[in-house]
Design goal:
single chain, about 190 residues, mainly alpha, 2 strands, about 0% strand, elongated
Length: about 190
């Protein structure tokens, strides 16, 4: 889709504006995906709306739907969302062993997304980054908790540093983490991890 500055101020208006811009008699998978892309570009990943919801809005405005395509597009979108959710739920940054396993999964996913198709890869990498940002915030929040033992809080601070480095330079992260875990300072701070 051609990048442009859309004038709509809310999702519904943007959906209609993009549909009108596409100037198509009927709406199917391609058009729904273009509208979803515009939603993401304008309002961010949190504004993404299901193809079925978009189809309902444009149908109310007079679009003719190519129902089999709309249905399949919606099914595919929902399956992808479930996979993303399962991936996110499988990550755990509460202690060193689970955090290490989680960053390995993050790296595998990042590399997989870089090799995949360019458009979906870019969206996937943004989503992966959002997951890491949320995990880092959560680790920092827990590290400030007075309820947790000081050793747990120290681990959480360290894990949030790992995630900070991942966000700043994901391609260097694996090497950095390996060096970090071997450093004398790390071994002194976390002797139980050795």
């Amino acid at each position: 889709m051609i990048a442009r500055n859309w004038s709509a101020r809310n999702k519904r208006d943007l959906i209609i504006e993009v549909w009108e811009y596409l100037d198509c008699e009927s709406v199917g998978a391609s058009e729904l995906e273009q509208i979803q892309q515009a939603l993401t570009e304008k309002f961010g990943a949190g504004a993404l709306t299901s193809p079925a919801s978009i189809a309902r809005i444009v149908a109310d405005e007079g679009a003719v739907l190519r129902h089999p395509e709309v249905f399949q597009c919606d099914v595919n979108w929902r399956e992808q969302n479930l996979k993303r959710w399962e991936f996110r739920e499988g990550l755990n940054f509460s202690d060193f062993s689970t955090a290490f396993a989680s960053v390995v999964r993050l790296e595998e996913k990042r590399l997989q997304l870089q090799v995949g198709d360019e458009a979906n890869g870019a969206i996937g990498l943004r989503e992966l980054r959002d997951i890491v940002v949320a995990a880092r915030k959560d680790s920092l929040l827990q590290a400030r908790s007075k309820i947790l033992d000081s050793s747990v809080r120290e681990q959480l601070k360290e894990i949030s540093e790992w995630l900070t480095v991942w966000l700043q330079a994901p391609e260097l992260f694996s090497d950095w983490l390996d060096l970090r875990r071997r450093s004398p300072e790390y071994k002194k701070r976390f002797p139980e991890e050795q």
